[in-house]
Amino acid sequence: MRSSKVAHVAAFLAVAAFPLAACGKQDQPAAPPPPRVRFVTVAEQAVALTNELPGRTAAYETSEVRPQVNGLIQARLFEEGNQVRAGQPLYRIDPQPYQAQVASARAALTRAQAGIASSRALARRYGELVKINAIARQDFENSQTTAAQAQADVAAQQAALRTAQIDLSRTTVTAPISGRIGTSVYTSGALVTAAQTNPLTTIQRLDPIYVDLTQSSADLLRLRQQMLSGTVSRGGGDARVRLKLGDGTTYPIEGTLKFAAVTVDPTTGTQTIRAVFRNPQGLLLPGMYVRAELVEGTQRSAIVVPERAVTRDERGRATVLVVGQGSKAESRVLTTSRTIGADWLVTAGLKPGDKVIVEGAQMLRPGTVVTASPWSERARPATASAQAR
């Protein structure tokens, strides 16, 4: 009887344990699928190397207007801030003292001209008399000298008259160049002198206008070395320059690079570059801070990768993940020189054909097996003619 009860209990325990075992097998998780990533295939391409440089605008021409004669200003003949043309009257200085000088010089010239007539007549008569020994030869030579002196007096008085006329004309102060005129420092009734330090006013020609830029000598040296090695080429003709204003907007007219200074500033280690821009609306004014984007050259065999694919390791080095052998993620350390729009320009660490992971790399670790597919180019930001920073 006892053995029968033991058998029933064993059978019950076996039946109860069966579903527990089944439940244990069902709770085991299935292996997760490989993470999905998207990649771009690295290829060499030609890229335009541009550089954004700080600069200041400067007037194309500047003229400080100063008087060339002494006197009182009778009138100002212009409106401050207006455009003036070369030769336009700006100030009128009291002309009366100079009119008197012109009259005096003209009278002196008339007197000298009258004297030359009599001296020439005397020299001719003495010339006839000396031939017949009617007068001493010394008297004849003295008459010749007197005639020559009279001729020189006429020339001197002509020069004095011309000088007086020039001084009289300078009582009207005219604009030496065309441009926009500034504030008048002197008003009517002010006494001015020809040797004064302060200008009456200043005229600036603003169309066209200069933009003076500063570039690091180290960057310039690197660029020239790349040109000498043939990795970077520069096309012929004047380089075009685009301008960004202080409020972030782009100036609508492109400029032209004119020249670069032949020396480097030893205190700052920079070189000055000058560009010229048309300024028909007068939007650019001297002294404005701007940033200019200029094309340095074209690198024919460049490798670029999207910025979003590049991260930094604990040492601050630029790294990317690539799809390697066996579809495993591999880490690469890059050497980058600059950004070109939304891309990094890579000088070392990648080769053509490498598959750089762009999406899905946030939680990946090197060695992880991935399911990779190409990154759609339509989702990539435009980088054509991008700027270098």
Keywords:
alpha+beta, disordered C terminus, single chain, 28% helix, Elongation Factor Tu (Ef-tu), domain 3, conserved putative lor/sdh protein from methanococcus maripaludis s2 fold, 20 strands, OB fold (Dihydrolipoamide Acetyltransferase, E2P), 4 domains
At the fourth CATH level, what is the homologous superfamily of the largest domain? Efflux pump adaptor protein, beta barrel domain
CATH topology of the largest domain: Elongation Factor Tu (Ef-tu), domain 3
Largest sheet: 6 strands, antiparallel, barrel
| Count of beta strands | 20
Helical segment count:
4
Question: What report would you give on this structure?
Answer:
This protein is α+β, with helices and mostly antiparallel strands. The chain has 4 domains: 36-47 and 300-379, conserved putative lor/sdh protein from methanococcus maripaludis s2 fold; 50-59 and 207-298, Beta Barrel (Elongation Factor Tu (Ef-tu), domain 3), CATH 2.40.30.170; 68-94 and 171-198, OB fold (Dihydrolipoamide Acetyltransferase, E2P) (Beta Barrel), CATH 2.40.50.100; 96-168, Helix hairpin bin (Helix Hairpins). Helix content is 28%, strand content 35%. A 6-stranded antiparallel β-barrel has the order 2-9-13-12-11-14. Strands 6-5-3-8 form a 4-stranded antiparallel beta sheet, with no helix packed on it. Helix 2 (96-131) packs antiparallel against helix 3 (137-169). The chain is elongated and about 150 Å long. The N and C termini lie far apart (96 Å). Mean pLDDT is 81; it is low at 5-18 and 378-389.
